[in-house]
Write a structure and sequence with these properties.
Length: 556
């Protein structure tokens, strides 16, 4: 819906301060960046990760004693969807060299590289092939390819600094040094990056960058990359795709090697077994858990499935105490609440303003710092913009982009968001957007090395399900890079493992039985089951009526 009268009045304060802000930008005057000490103080007071009451200790598994969000621990301390004693693993429905669980960017990239390295591949996905956070990524992909001004060394330092220097250095090294090759690979497959008329790739800066190295495809970069990867995979021999078929347990051999997975057919309600010489988990993140009640930018199937499967099989987690809350998610209109507004808007010149039209933070701070500043402005300082639903937001002054970079820039470079808002009666080339932090990314995940190997032989991981490369905070453009760099590594190494290292043995779910026993020994008696597969948005009152109706229906 268009802005109601109250928001129209508040919007005038943005317009009143705009001439002065334009003049400052043209003089090169920017709002000062924070010192490391100021950032730490801000994070510790306002970032959701620092709320100790939002976490609890994990009582079972390889990370026993560590803390994570209640919503994640609920799933770690849940029972399997199946009783291992009643699963017939001798009936194998599919057999392949490499099984890839997850049909987003990381999984599809892994499939391509595994196939190129001589492996027969089965790729399974919970929804349709391509239904993933990759499809929803907007802003772009980092790569230090303009070596006259940039280098992988600068990219490395930016990434380590963004993650508070907690990142795994080997993973970061692989990420940044392979980035230019990944960009060339994408172009060779047909990805259409935004370019200048003479053919040079356009680039922008973003929070935490010291150089302009963000490459993009308008504001639909993820969709363009996923389109290309999916088309390539579906047109190659040797890659079989099974849709609506989520994995519910990994299968190990009697030797403790990963040897396949038990899957669930969402259309028939049947379980089936896939036997494989190597398995790659690429199941994505956990945004649909709505940790601490935050709305999310994530796709419908982002329910932490891979975390559960890998953890039960014995793989440790890393950095699961930290999640990323993107500072700019839509807070009004309510019909599109939670929709991601790319950091690219701020990189292109949009200002961040409070209810009085004042700047209060540098737009190029890392995401966790930016998020914390928005929360402080709204909750503590009382300077948030009130919405008709009683929530608070921050103005993102997108018309600044038109003024600074020329008429038509917003519609040309942010066509996806322009269309979405235009349907709501808001022209973001002339009117600011109203935003607030949203749950966006899973910084942590399953522990692996730079070859994507886990502690379980034959089990590889790639993409958002992994933990280590981003440390405690991810920079913009490193997620699309992450899935491609490590998807390629996992696919190649999975194929090599299947050919040279796989060890045959009896299939078992003994690790699941042992996990159930550990739950009981820890005194955890629960009816929760995991993986969740899909979120349940049933209204609590409706859910109670459903339970009552079922109860009545069983009487007599």
């Amino acid at each position: 819906m268009p802005y109601p009268k109250k928001l129209e009045r508040l919007k005038k304060k943005v317009e009143e301060t705009r001439p002065e802000r334009i003049a400052k930008k043209r003089r090169g005057e920017e709002f000062p960046s924070m010192s490391l000490k100021e950032r730490h103080t801000l994070l510790s007071k306002y970032h959701p990760d620092y709320r100790e009451e939002a976490k609890r200790e994990i009582k079972v598994g390889p990370n026993k004693g560590d803390k994570a969000a209640h919503e994640i621990v609920d799933l770690l301390e849940a029972r399997s969807k199946v009783d291992p004693l009643h699963v017939n693993l001798s009936q194998v429905d599919y057999e392949t060299d490499v099984l890839i669980i997850g049909g987003g960017g990381a999984g599809t990239t892994a499939a391509l590289l595994a196939q190129e390295n001589g492996a027969e591949v089965v790729l399974t996905t919970k929804l349709r092939h391509g239904d993933a956070n990759t499809m929803m990524a907007e802003g772009g992909i980092q790569a230090a390819d303009k070596l006259e001004k940039d280098s992988p060394a600068y990219h490395y330092l930016d990434t380590m600094g963004g993650g508070h220097f907690k990142n795994d250095p080997e993973l970061v090294y692989r990420l940044v040094t392979e980035a230019p090759d990944v960009l060339l690979w994408l172009e060779s497959l047909g990805v259409m990056f935004s370019k200048f008329p003479e053919g040079r790739l356009q680039t922008l800066s973003a929070g935490g960058f010291c150089r302009n190295r963000l490459h993009f495809c308008a504001d639909i970069t993820g969709a363009e990359i996923m389109r290309t990867l999916r088309d390539e995979a579906r047109n190659r021999e040797g890659i079989k795709v099974l849709e609506f078929s989520p994995a519910v347990e990994l299968i190990l051999s009697e030797h403790g090697h990963c040897a396949g997975a038990l899957h669930y057919d969402m259309e028939t309600g049947e379980y089936f077994v896939i036997k494989a010489k190597a398995v790659i988990l690429a199941t994505g993140g956990c945004g649909r858990l709505h940790v601490q009640g935050y709305p999310t930018t994530n796709h419908y199937g982002a329910t932490a499935d891979g975390l559960i499967l890998g953890y039960r099989a014995g793989v440790k987690h890393a950095f699961m105490y930290t999640l990323q809350y993107h500072p700019t998610g839509v807070i009004f209109p309510e019909q599109i609440e939670g929709l991601l507004i790319s950091e690219k808007f701020r990189g292109a010149g949009a200002d961040v303003l409070n209810v009085d039209g004042e700047k209060f933070v540098n737009e190029m701070e890392p995401r966790d710092v930016e998020t914390s500043a928005y929360i402080r402005e709204c909750i503590t300082r009382g300077k948030g913009v009130p919405t008709p639903a009683g929530k608070l937001g921050i103005w993102l002054d997108s018309p600044m982009i038109e003024i600074l970079r020329g008429e038509g820039t917003v519609k040309r470079e942010f066509i996806g968001k322009w269309k979405v808002f235009n349907r709501q009666g808001i022209d973001i080339s002339k009117e600011p957007m109203l935003v607030y932090p949203v749950l966006h990314y899973q910084n942590g995940g399953l522990l692996c090395n730079a070859e994507c190997e886990t502690s379980v032989p034959g089990l590889f991981v790639a993409g958002e399900v992994t933990g280590g490369v981003h440390g405690e905070n991810r920079l913009m453009g490193n997620s699309l890079l992450d899935i491609l760099v490590f998807g390629r590594i996992a696919g190649k190494n999975g194929a090599i493992y299947a050919k040279d290292k796989a060890k045959e043995g009896k299939l078992t779910l003994d690790h699941v039985t042992a996990y159930h026993r550990e739950l009981e020994d820890a005194g955890i008696m629960t009816d929760r089951v995991a993986p969740m597969l899909l979120p349940d948005y049933t209204n609590p009152k409706v859910r109670q009526r459903q339970l009552t109706t079922r109860s009545i229906g069983t009487v007599g």
